Amino acid sequence: MSSFFQEKKRNNLRDFLNVAGPMGVTHFFILSKTATSSYLRVATTPQGPTLTFKIHEYSLAADIARSQLHPRCPKDLFKNSALIVLSGFVSGDPPLQLTTNMFQNIFPTIDVKTVKLSTCQRIVLLNYNKDTKLIDFRHYSIRLQPVGVSRRIRKLVQSHQVPDLRNLQDVSDFVTKAGYGSESEADEEAATVTLSSDIGRVNRASTKSAVKLQEVGPRMTLQLVKIEKGLCSGEVLFSEYGKAGGKGKSDDEMQGEEDSDGDEDEEDQDGDHPEDSEDKDQDLD
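The line above is the sequence of Peter Pan-like protein isoform B; the predicted structure tokens follow.
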């Protein structure tokens, strides 16, 4: 329902908070930018807490699609919530534990015994590097391919159009045409599962299918720099650049502390740097 909300430039945080409850919005993702860095704030409505991340590197979904030979984005890809996978988030560190709980609560829990496999179409991967204290954010689409079915047969079943057979002597020529074997594509390289229900027109129940992931973006490298008790305000529970327990500071004030500590922005090696575009920070979702 929140996807139909029409925001205006004069709207402020309180306006969004007032409609969050009726619309079923549980979390805010707020992007901001200073002179040298971009930030992502993840806040739980209505009373917090709020986690602030510095965006070291990012690539938009459009950038990911342009880098792929065959980008994949079915029309119903975003109809259902994504699955969440957390890697490297060890327990014991309170800020890291709070980060883990925050991201787990963003995505609905699933029951593996009753979940419909057809609704599992996306996966969000968060990988924490304890040495660099950076979090890699990746977003993939999930696709299944039946094991032991050639690419030609699979495309024939999935397509709603009759292929051009005018230049062939027999239908077997279409199946055995040079360049397409009878084996499925890269079945050995992908994990295979036995399906409990039908998915699509070619993946049938009780048959084996190869599970493959294709990145859809966006892609981000994040660093947790601050945790506030309230919704973008309140007591600072954690700060990467100063002592916790004080009043929350703005991104500009926090950037000043960062610069004074000699922490310089890293150059973006894989994606676009936040300084390169003023409007890119609006399209990360």
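Note on the example: Residues 94-106 form the longest helix (13 residues). Residues 151-183 form one domain.
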